[in-house]
């Protein structure tokens, strides 16, 4: 079995936010890194802030496209071919009323947040199976448990990612591949620009990406099934599952109070790359 410091870790959406912070966690643990994202300059910025001695492989790639996923697979093959951890972190956020949401916006979120993690996991599975204790980490969202108004399409993709994680965990267990699903609440990242005006009306709290990444990394290291925020969010997730009508009432009340400000439901976007 390879030592922890020899492990190979792929992180998508590594150019900013949680992905960049996860790169730091993995590097401090001695892992070898393959960092993927749409923008080469953002990946270089992440690499520049890693501990001395880190030599990450940077792969500018759009994981919604076959050629982007192939580039990552080729990087894994070139790094030895045994992949210890795949962290599916890349994501896209667009908010606004469903009436004003364009088809292009919906499809972008479906491809980036759900189809791409599924397809990349499929494409890298042969490399994962070569490792001693491989793991897939899917970074979802609390919006994948509690669906907010103006986040309909985004929530749908994160609900889907949570379901994908459950299915893969059961399907890949006989092959020794573990799956961790992470559901952070709103995080103080560039992606939060898509819903900054909704933070106060919906009483959201923005977490520090470094702290979120630390919790996710520790959960993956401990081979946990899932990781959720500590605090009242755990209660609301339970309430959503047991008494969804109570959650409906609270969110509808908040949305009704905000609706005048949100007239027109203008679409806003942000992307984790």
TrEMBL record:
Keywords annotated in UniProt: Oxidoreductase
Annotated GO CC locations: membrane
InterPro entries membership: NAD(P)-bd_dom_sf, Sc_DH/Rdtase_CS, SDR_fam
Pfam families to which the protein is assigned, alphabetical: adh_short (PF00106)
Keyword Oxidoreductase: yes
Segments crossing the lipid bilayer: none
UniProt entry tagged with the keyword Oxidoreductase: yes
Molecular function per GO: oxidoreductase activity
Protein family according to the UniProt entry: Belongs to the short-chain dehydrogenases/reductases (SDR) family.
Protein name: Short chain dehydrogenase
Organism the protein comes from: Tepidicaulis marinus
The organism's taxonomic lineage, starting at the top: Bacteria, Pseudomonadati, Pseudomonadota, Alphaproteobacteria, Hyphomicrobiales
